[in-house]
Amino acid sequence: MSITLPNNSIMLKPDFTFGVATASFQIEGANTEDGRLPCIWDTFCATPGKVFNGDDGSVACDHYHLWKEDVQLIKSLGVDAYRLSIAWPRVMDEQGEPNEKGLLFYRNLIKELKANGIKVFATLYHWDLPQHLEDKGGWLNRETAYRYAEYANLITNELGQWVDSWATFNEPFCAALLGYEVGVHAPGLAKPEYGRQAAHHILLAHGLALPAIRANSPTADVGIVLNMNRIYAASDKSEDQFAALVRETLDNQFFIEPLLKAQYPKLLNNVLPHYLPTILPGDMEIIARSIDFIGMNFYTCNHNEYDEENLYREVKKENVEYTDIGWEIAPQAFNELLINLNEQYDLPPMYITENGAACADTIEAGKVDDDQRVRYLQGHINAVNDAITAGVDIRGYFAWSLMDNFEWAEGYSKRFGLTYVDYETQERTIKRSGYAYRDLLLSRQK
Ligand code: FCB
Questions:
Q1: Residue 224 and residue 220: Cα distance in Å, rounded?
Q2: Given phi > 0 = left and psi -120 to 50 = alpha, else beta, which region is 249?
Q3: Average pLDDT of adjacent 10-residue blocks, the chain of 446 residues
Q4: Whether residue 400 has its Cβ less than 6 Å from ligand 1
Q5: I need a surface site. Which of 48, 70, 221, 289 has the fewest CB within 10 A?
C-alpha cells in the first residue's frame, strides 16, 4: 500500500513543501538541563491524575541529546522541511536574559538541518510557557503578551538568519481553551471566562511580536498556526444546525476572524456575550497585522446536536472509522473545511502544518505495519490536493509527526509518528507509513 497523488498534482511540483513536524516539549526531554526553566507542562505532569500513567517530559524522545541522529532520520524521509518548536523556558531566564546553552542547542540543530538541505519552519510557542510567568497569571495576565514579544524578539534575533518560516503560536485554541477553560491541558484551569481572555492575550502576543520578527528575520515568512475540526450538525433540524453554528463560531471562527478581520464573531454578542474577552483600544488592529501565511492543523471532524445548557453537545457517528485516539477519519471533511474557509475569507497562503493519525502500533521483527495511517495519509493528502484544485492557495503539507512522542494528557500512550520510538532504548524505526511518505516524496521530479 502506497501514498499517491494524481500525476499532474501541484503538490508534486518542486515549490510545494513537504515536511514532518514535532514540538519541543513532546520530544526533547532534558527538562532540567543547561538551565532550562520549569514550564507549565512540567507542573501539570507532576500533578497527580492530569496525565495518563503519570507520564512526563523529562526524557521524552531524548531529542536534546539525539538531535544529530534525528536530523539524519528527517533527511532519510526525503522531506523538504522540518517543523520544530523552540522552548521558551530553554532560551530565556527569569530576568529576560538569553540562556546561551539553550540557544546553542537550537543554533546547532538549525544549522545542521540547513547543512542537510532541510528548510526550517520554527514555531515560537507550542505550549511550554515558563512556569514563573504562569505564577503571575500566565495567559490570563496581559503582561505575558509583552513578555512573549520580548522572547520572540530575542529568539528571532539569534536564529533569524537561518529560519525559513516563523509561526508565532501553535493552536491558540488548545493553549487557551484546553488550558484555561476546559482544564485538560496545562495549566489546568477551568472557567468559561478564562479561556477567551487567555485566547485574546495569545492573539495579542502574536500581533505584538510581528514587527520584531520581521525586522530580525526579513527573508522569512511569518504567520500563525491554527487548528480546526470540520464541524457538522448531527441532523437537518434547525436546532442542531444552530448548535453546529455555535460550535463553529467558538472553536474556529473565534480564532481566525480576529486575525483576518480584526473582530471577534458577531454571533458572540447576541448568543454568548459572557464569552467576549476584555479588549483594550487598539488590540484588534495589533492582532490583525498582516501575516504571510496561516498554518492549519487538521485531524478530524465532529457532529453536534442542540443542548439546552451548553447550546451544543457532540454525538459520535456510527459506521465510521476512528483512530486510536477516538478521532473520526474524515478526509472529505478536511477538503470541505479548506474550501469553506477560502469562501469565507481572503486567505493568505496556507500551509497544512499538522495532519496525522494515532494508531495502536506494535513493532514485530523490526517492522511496524501501520496500514491505517497509510490510508489516513493517502486520504488527507488527496483532500489537500482537491482543495488546491478547487482554488485554495496551499503551499505545503507537514505530517504529524516525525516520530512517536509525548501526546500531552495522553502521555506516551498514543503514537502519531511516522517513526516508531522504543522509549526504553530510544531506538527509532521508520514505520510503513514513513516509507510510504518517503516514496511519495522521492517520486517527485526535483
Ligand atoms: C495537536 C498538537 C500536537 C499534537 C497533535 C496530535 O493539537 O499541536 O502537538 O499533539 O495535536
A1: 13
A2: alpha
A3: 96 98 99 98 98 98 99 98 99 98 98 98 99 98 98 98 99 98 98 95 99 98 99 98 98 98 95 93 98 99 97 97 98 98 98 99 98 98 98 99 99 99 98 98 89
A4: yes
A5: 48
How many whole angstroms separate alpha carbon 182 and alpha carbon 178?
5
Residue whose C-alpha cell is 542547542 = 105
For residue 407 and ligand 1, the question of a CB distance below 6 A is answered with yes
CB 45 within 8 Å of CB 108: no
Q: Is 128 in the pocket of ligand 1 (CB under 6 A)?
A: no
pTM, rounded to two decimals: 0.98
Q: Which of 83, 408, 414 to mutate to test the pocket of ligand 1 (most atoms within 8 A of CB)?
A: 408
CB 388 within 8 A of CB 10: yes
**Short-list 300, 293, 248, 238, CA closest to 272:** 248
Residues 371/376/378/382 CA torsion (nearest 10 deg):
170
